[in-house]
Write a structure and sequence with these properties.
The chain is α/β, with parallel strands linked by helices. Helices cover 23% and strands 13% of the residues. The chain is built from 7 helices and 7 strands, in the order E-H-H-E-E-H-E-H-H-E-H-E-H-E. Strand 5, helix 6 (174-195) and strand 6 (206-209) form a beta-alpha-beta unit. The longest helix has 22 residues, at 174-195. 49% of the residues are buried.
């Protein structure tokens, strides 16, 4: 079983990706893929059980991968419930390559920062860089609240690995991200190992999607600093510029710099290229080791 987490590009629905209608119908051919999606919930303290579930464990088919079959354009990520295009397509790739059943545990929330998904212990590792303030009355934007409600209850599951698409909302503070990303990876590994009584590997694979380029027509290089620090580093440590590295061993990166989508009806940041490169001669499956 793999965990898929992050913000709205991970939440982005399969049906809204390029060739989404076909991909949804093809899901009927993969009954050995199982899908689960947590609900968007928060907690001030780490929980041992999920408060709510959006999608209970389901067999992959055209309904379970398509937001209960409600096809159509949904622009706001608050309307994106299940199934994550990247999560499903990554799992489908594993299933086809390995010939084994694959479980996909989908837990994400659009517009969130990495601090939301970090435990108190991970925050402490980067104490000088991880400050957050509450905006209005929403608990999103309060450090640890999504880890507490949407990750902590999953720690007793045995997992094979994690894929992660997040960072857009941390774009204004790229240098701290260089500490926060390795801290989250190390912390999740330690907690899943302990929570599963050692059945989850303490160094399980952790895949990171590089943020896509071309978020608008005028600035094709926007977001470069945060991409650099997706590989770790910080104010006193030079970014390694690649995965895996000594800061984040046993990790891998899906490069997406060439996958800008300025005309996306879901906003330029929400690219529809979730399956392959726009260039047919250069296939890219999210999650492939590079």
């Amino acid at each position: 079983m793999w965990v898929c987490s992050g913000q709205s590009n991970m939440a982005f629905l399969l049906e809204n990706a390029f060739n989404g209608t076909q991909l949804v119908q093809e899901a009927n051919d993969y009954p050995e893929i199982r899908l689960f999606t947590t609900a968007k919930t928060t907690s001030a303290e780490p929980l041992t059980e999920l408060i709510r579930v959006e999608q209970p464990w389901s067999v992959a088919n055209n309904l379970s991968v398509s937001d209960d079959g409600k096809l159509g354009v949904a622009v706001g990520d608050d309307d994106w419930l299940y199934m994550s295009a990247v999560c499903y397509l990554y799992g489908r790739g594993l299933h086809k390559a390995l010939g084994v059943p694959v479980g996909l545990l989908n837990t994400n929330w659009g517009g969130t920062v990495i601090q939301d998904w970090s435990s108190a212990e991970a925050m402490a590792r980067c104490a000088s860089t991880t400050g957050l303030t509450t905006t209005g009355e929403t608990p999103v934007g309060v450090a640890t609240h999504l880890f507490n409600a949407m990750i902590s209850p999953l720690l007793n599951h045995t997992i094979a690995g994690v894929i992660w698409w997040q960072g857009e909302s941390n774009g204004g503070a790229p240098v701290p991200y260089g500490c926060q990303m390795p801290a989250l990876v190390a912390d999740w590994r330690q907690k899943w190992f302990a929570g599963s009584d050692g059945r989850t590997a303490s160094d399980f694979p952790f895949g990171v999607v590089q943020l896509a380029g071309c978020p608008d027509d005028t600035d094709s290089l926007a977001g470069v600093p945060i991409r650099v620090f997706q590989t770790g580093g910080g104010a006193t440590v030079s970014p390694p510029m690649h995965l895996p590295n000594r800061l984040m061993p046993n990790t891998f990166m899906a490069t997406a710099y060439d996958l800008g989508d300025a005309t996306s009806p879901f906003g330029a940041v929400h690219i529809r290229y979730k399956q392959a490169s726009r260039c047919p001669s250069v296939p890219l499956t999210v999650g492939r080791r590079t």
